[in-house]
Design a protein that fits this description.
The structure is a single chain. The protein has 20 helices and six strands. It is mainly alpha-helical. Strand 1 and strand 2 form a beta hairpin. The protein is elongated. The relative contact order is 0.11. The chain has three domains: 97 residues, Fumarase/aspartase (N-terminal domain) (Fumarase C, Chain B, domain 1, Orthogonal Bundle), CATH 1.10.275; 182 residues, Up-down Bundle (Fumarase C, Chain A, domain 2), CATH 1.20.200; 66 residues, Fumarase/aspartase (C-terminal domain) (Ribonucleotide Reductase Protein R1, domain 1), CATH 1.10.40.30. The strands form three sheets. A two-stranded antiparallel ribbon has the order 1-2. Strands 3-4 form a two-stranded parallel ribbon. It is an enzyme of class 4 (lyase). Its EC number is 4.3.2.2. It catalyses: (2S)-2-[5-amino-1-(5-phospho-beta-D-ribosyl)imidazole-4-carboxamido]succinate = 5-amino-1-(5-phospho-beta-D-ribosyl)imidazole-4-carboxamide + fumarate; N(6)-(1,2-dicarboxyethyl)-AMP = fumarate + AMP. Belongs to the lyase 1 family. Adenylosuccinate lyase subfamily.
């Protein structure tokens, strides 16, 4: 079969291709080639400014030509590199040869062509390229997607700040809250998780075959190669310099980044399951769309598929990202190649995460609050007022308040009349008694509304 959306093995390149399109130019084979070209060119330009007598500073025209190869890098360019790789059987060397081919028509560049990939091992190019790929994916795709969810949930927290809702702990009725406060809890967790993703420093190295600048110093023994590499990495590429590595950058920062994304996804799995449950209880309805079908046999159904899809895709993302974070920091001696094939799946792990964010946001946009169902649920749970009643009894020194309420309410059906009858018989100050008599499950929400509005 020809490769198409219908024949793709991965649904990320088939059924869901449009949902993850933003990651495709960044984390694909094309994206890796693009960044390799960028790194090779920035290293080459920096070498021309290093003060070596054999390599004078490049003219502005030459610099513009070189950087134009990066800004105008196309699928045709990537394919040309791929064609060279058929001969070299080495992907990074293919990039070097492709660049040198571009130099053929420019005398200034052609005479200094051997400074392309000068003193570099392939991993000097690869690790910096991966850092640039992840930088763009985090900045341009992942964080904006998380921010959209945070913004939507913040809006819901404010909109529903004062709408009372019965809580359930261990699946049993518990002290009431508000819908907005429960959403605000998720917002607070997500904001912390988002900051952990953003805070990870993306590390890179350019120090040769085993991290000691061996080849660099053999050519220019008096040059400060460590300072030079740091300038290229931090000033020209915008990454963070790692001075101590083997042949590969050890990928600890990648593990930290993928773990941070995984933690964010786990929070959203928790929330997806909660919303699924609230829809099942009738607390939320879902907006319907003309022509959509919920079941092939039950016409009434409007299934919470967006939240189910989100949960499933977050699970896939976390499985892949967890493997990446656990495998990548491990390398035999000064390096083995197991990281290389695994790293090619960064886009798959983050792609499933992005698919989860998209599904969740679509689900949130369909939600409609069913205040009647929330009210009915609260009105059938007068037993939750046992907590405030026994707490006020404690304040005024009445005997065995907890034990009295336990005996009165535990396992017993409770109504407004029964609870108010119990309150009426208490030896409490009249003002306190009236305050308890006026309380309902819907008004016993503590500081929930204020907390929701503050988020």
């Amino acid at each position: 079969m020809n490769l198409s959306a219908l024949s793709a093995l991965s649904p990320l390149d088939g059924r869901y291709a449009s949902k993850v399109a933003a990651l495709r130019p960044l984390l694909s084979e094309f994206g890796l080639m693009h960044r390799r070209v960028q790194v090779e060119i920035e290293w080459f330009i920096a070498l021309s400014d290093a003060g070596f007598s054999e390599f004078k500073p490049l003219s502005e025209a030459a610099r513009g030509l070189l950087r134009g190869l990066v800004t105008r890098f196309s699928e045709a360019d990537a394919q040309a590199i791929k064609d060279i790789e058929k001969t070299t059987n080495h992907d990074v060397k293919a990039v070097e040869y492709w660049l040198k081919d571009r130099f053929e028509s420019n005398a200034e560049l052609k005479k200094t062509g051997e400074f392309v990939h000068f003193a570099c091992t392939s991993e000097d190019i690869n690790n910096t390229s991966h850092g640039l790929m992840l930088k763009a994916a985090r900045q341009d795709v992942i964080l904006p997607a998380v921010d959209k969810i945070i913004a939507k949930l913040t809006q819901l927290a404010h909109d529903f700040a004062a709408v009372p809702m019965l809580s359930r702990t261990h699946g049993q009725t518990a002290s009431p809250t508000t819908v907005g406060k429960e959403v605000a809890n998720v917002v607070a967790r997500l904001k912390n998780a988002r900051e952990r993703i953003a805070a990870v420093k993306l590390l890179a190295k350019m120090n040769g075959a085993v991290g000691n600048y061996n080849a660099h110093l053999s050519a220019y023994p008096d040059h400060d190669w460590e300072a030079f590499s740091q300038r290229v990495i931090e000033k020209q590429l915008g990454l963070t310099f790692n001075p101590y590595t083997i042949q590969i950058e050890p990928h600890d920062y990648m593990a930290e980044l993928f773990d941070a994304v995984t933690r964010t996804n786990t929070i959203l799995i928790d929330w997806s399951r909660d919303v699924w449950g609230y829809i099942s209880l009738g607390f939320f309805k879902q907006k319907t769309k003309e022509g959509e079908v919920g079941s092939s046999t039950m016409p009434h159904k409007v299934n919470p598929i967006d939240f189910e899809n989100a949960e499933g895709n977050f699970g896939l993302a976390n499985a892949l990202l967890t493997h990446l974070s656990q495998k990548l920091p491990i390398s035999r001696w000064q390096r083995d190649l197991t990281d290389s094939t695994v790293l090619r799946n960064m886009g798959v792990g983050l792609g499933y995460a992005l698919l989860g964010y998209d599904s969740l946001l679509r689900g949130l946009d369909k939600l409609q609050l069913n205040e009647a169902a929330l009210s009915d649920d609260l009105d059938g749970a007068w037993e939750v007022l046992a907590e405030p009643i026994q707490t006020v009894m404690r304040r005024f020194g009445l005997p065995e308040p907890y034990e009295q309420l336990k005996k009165f309410t535990r396992g017993q059906p409770m109504t407004r009349e029964l609870m108010q009858g119990f309150i009426a018989g208490l030896s409490l100050p009249e003002a306190e008694k009236q305050r308890l008599l006026a309380m309902t499950p819907a008004t016993y929400t503590g500081q929930a509304a204020a907390l929701a509005r503050k988020i």
